[in-house]
Amino acid sequence: MFKILIIFFILTFYTPAFSFVKDKIVSQMQLTNNLSFNFIQMIDGQSEEGSCIIEYPKKIYCEYNNPKNKIMVSNGKSLVIKNRNKKNYYVYPLKNTPLKFLLDKNYLISKINTLEPRNVNNKYLNFQIFENDNRINIFFDIKTSLLTGWQTKDIYDNLTITFISSIEVNKKINNKIFTLPENN
């Protein structure tokens, strides 16, 4: 009988706490037009750092702190990865990448509303999304309700883990940064 009371107590008081946090995450996302942040990205055991700006829907601009001066930019339709030290660049249809989902806040909100979160060390809520051939794990800070990172597979099927920090919400940005490089 004591075990049944404990289980009842946990289910009664534990679930609404996550429901409240989940509602805060959705509210925060609805109010967010853009995010600026620093990142550390792990791809196939290698680490890269830099800064990004996401503007919803589906735009991103990232500068990598590496000798190649790599940038990544999406105008909402295409994703370009370019080394500033070279004139060549790679263009991918955004729809063929997991960023298609991560950069669409309305899509994320609809998924968060239907998914049960997983508590990670009482610091983060994790939502696991399965879409087409993509498995996307997104993480939100329990205290701030802000996005703190994601885990996906890149276009080459490498596990990619992105941690974000120093997050600024709805910062004034110059939309010209989302302009794709011209053909050389």
Structural class: alpha+beta
Task: Going across the biggest sheet, name each strand in turn.
Answer: 6-5-4-3-2-1-11-10-9-8-7
CATH superfamily: Lipoprotein localisation LolA/LolB/LppX
Number of helices: 3
Average of per-residue pLDDT values:
86
As residue ranges, the low-confidence spans are: 1-16
* H-E order: HEEEEEEHHEEEEE
**Number of distinct beta strands:** 11
Distance between the amino and carboxyl termini: 74 Å
Question: What would you say this structure looks like, in words?
Answer:
- The chain has 184 residues and is α+β, with helices and mostly antiparallel strands.
- 24% of the residues lie in helices and 43% in strands.
- It has a single domain, classed as outer membrane lipoprotein receptor (LolB), chain A (Clam).
- Helix 1 (2-31) packs antiparallel against helix 3.
Question: Can you describe this structure in just a few lines?
Answer:
With about 180 residues, the protein is α+β, with helices and mostly antiparallel strands.
